[in-house]
Amino acid sequence: VRSMWLSSVSxxxxxGGVPLLAAWLGRHRLRSTFRIRNPHLLALIGAAVxxxxxxxxxxxxxxxxxxxGIGGLSESTIEKTRKVxxxxxxVPPYVLLITLAATPAIIEELCFRGFLFxxxxxxxxxxxxxxxxxxxxxxxHVVTGNALLIERFVPSFLLGLVxxxxxxxxxxxxxxxxxxxxxxxxxxxxGHYHESLT
Length: 198
Known about the structure:
By secondary structure, the protein is mainly α. Helices cover 79% and strands 2% of the residues. The protein has nine helices and two strands. It has helices at 2-25, 30-33, 41-67, 75-88, 93-121, 126-142, 153-170, 174-192, 194-197; strands at residues 143-144, 147-148. A two-stranded antiparallel ribbon has the order 1-2. A hairpin with a 2-residue loop joins β1 and β2. The mean pLDDT is 90.
């Protein structure tokens, strides 16, 4: 549990604090720089629905990655995943939702689809901006702690494309936060309750 809280604080400090400091030093307006605008209610509902179905999308992305020879789930990776799932059953659900769903959803969206999206969009088209931020998002998810998890690149990149498209369509990071939170939260809750679900 402690490592989850520390990881969450680290994410906030690095991927929240550094862009915030850069925006402040550059004297940029925070709401526009981080694309904090209220989207339409239908956009939020649509984002939540996309978040509920994104697990199937992620699964297919793992299959594609495996077929392309990018990563693949080795026996050791599967065994590590089993240990993580077992550990998750011992953690209160609210801790999983705060540290592994809400914090990444808020901070990663503010960084990738907020700060970086705004900076890149000044010089490139919307689709180029979506592509570049998705690539950066995918690379960010390859490195976790001291391990390179190359099999995470394709699903994270594809998820980044969807989140970038949402950011472009709504002009806001908020709908992306909703999708990101629902997607992560669903996976964490399935992981926490997996023993009673089987």
